[in-house]
Amino acid sequence: MSEFEPVIGVEIHVQLSTNTKMFCGCELSFGDPPNTHTCPVCLAHPGVLPVVNEEAVRRALMIGLALGCEIAPRSIFHRKNYFYPDLPKAYQVSQFDIPICGRGEFVAIREDGSELRVGITRAHLEEDAAKLTHLGGRRAGAEESVVDFNRGGTPLVEIVTEPDLRSASDAVTFLRQLRQTLLFLGVSDCSMEEGSMRADANVSIRPVGTHEFGTKTELKNMNSFRFLERGMDAEIARQEEILRDGGRVSQETVHYEPETGHITSLRSKEESHDYRYFPEPDLVPVAPDPAWVDQLRDDLPELPLSLRRRMVDDMGLSAEDALVLTESPELVAYFMEAAALADPKACANWIRGELRAQLREAGTEPWESKVTPAHVAALVDLLAIGTVSVPAAKEVLAGMIETGDEPAAVVEAKGLAQMDESDLAGVIAAIVEANPDQAQQLRDGKDKVMGFFVGQAMKQTGGRADPQAVQKLVRELVLGS
Ligand code: ADP
Ligand code: ZN
Ligand code: MG
What is the pLDDT of residues 42-72, one digit of tens each? Predict the structure, then answer.
């Protein structure tokens, strides 16, 4: 057991998927030719004036409300000054001491069902920088660097957490569920790969049982949760080694190389006074009408946490079922529609299990497929009343995926209805007669051989036999009981 405890706080940048930029009318684009969505405002020509994007404010408020944050009655923008080629004004318009969303809390659920509570320090609005691409080498080693200003001025919400996380795996659990919540809000695409969601992890360690925080480092620029988790674990291990050797962790920004597993130091971290923050004189404060905020609160969609609790407490699903089924708003809607019509637990099993497995080959999601939620419910009902066996139901599902027909029609067309017991008895008698060795094994108490009979019966009936009925008939015939 390790004698150190990790302490982690994360900062998440979320690009809002508004139509236009934070302070000008330029269209937001991803993947368009470089420098095709620019104007004098986002290129920082002299004398221009920014105007706040109301839709960005609305989405920032939605995020704050979903995170239970205090909403500032009046927040202001600050200039964060630094010189870099991705920042034409040489300052980023951000928020400093009066962010639009203050303290809140996010509750995530771990896979074992336990709660993970993470304090939210703040969530503020700012603008993204332009995109720099280094050609012919990395950073300092590059031959040239080119700038695409399309991204410059994209609305961002930065969410900052308290240092409440105690492991890399908890941090990623939190981040995944936060991402899910943002997707349910519909405020951002939240693509780690495309950079519309970016997470930086602040990591320190301290001796178990102590309360004072250690010096933290900041792990930046990870574009997947998997790599971020590995990076945090590598950084925790690096810090432990330093402390065990009697050294001191220095406050710096670090980078994790997924290929090598190595941590490298990028630069010593700036302090906030290095940025010479000062109030942005070109923008008025954001003072949202309380009635508008109330309206936004009322209009929030049901979020994953509440859905998950409802699935477990009221619908009899496992914590893991609920976690899987709240993966996306589309999947929730699909499941809920089926679960309103048939046994929720059975619907959950079929949707997250067989349906997704069969669709995976085609790379299709349930809600994109020809199978409607009502048809899933109908299939679950056919199983419950014994019209089809489980193996036959899987075949019915395959037929439903292909044709979009309702299950009863597929059962009819493929002749998959379960045989009644008298028809089945004849088949079983023939199987037992043809396999005297296996029958003897059963008499000798080798119960495992029952699997052989069930398999034979399934094969000969094309899956139309009920495994329970097969076992009963075999037992009667061979053992006389
Ligand atoms: P900075 O001044 O370096 O920006 P902040 O206090 O603003 O530091 O915190 C930035 C982030 O780092 C927050 O997410 C916070 O929870 C986290 N953090 C602060 N101190 C520590 C620490 N000692 N260990 C781990 N994370 C920390
Ligand atoms: Zn512009
Ligand atoms: Mg800070």
Answer: 999 999 999 999 999 999 999 999 999 999 9
Question: Cα of 42 to ligand 2 centre, how many Å?
Answer: 4
For residues 97 and 119, the answer to whether their CB atoms sit within 8 Å is no
Ligand 1 atom 24, closest CA: 204
> Taking CB atoms and a 6 Å cutoff, what residues make up the pocket around ligand 1?
7-11, 160-163, 202-204, 213-214, 216, 272
Distance CA(130)–CA(17), nearest Å, equals 16
CB 242 within 8 A of CB 211: no
CATH among 1.20.1250.20, 2.60.40.10, 1.10.3720.10, 1.10.10.410 for 421-478 = 1.10.10.410
From the alpha carbon of 272, which atom of ligand 1 is closest?
Answer: 2
**CB-CB contact of 201 with 13 (8 Å):** no
Secondary structure tally for the chain: helices H, strands E: 16, 13
* Strand locations in 233-373 (E): 252-257, 262-268, 278-279
What does the domain layout of the chain look like in residue ranges? 4-293, 313-414, 421-478
Tokens of 358: 């069969």
Q: How far apart are CA 86 and CA 96, in angstroms?
A: 21
pTM: 0.85
201: amino acid identity, one letter: A
Q: Which ligand is nearest to the CA of 8?
A: 1
In tens, the pLDDT along 298-321 reads: 999 999 999 999 999 999 999 999
φ, ψ for residue 265, nearest 5 deg: -85, 135
Residue ID of nearest Cα to ligand 1 atom 7 = 160
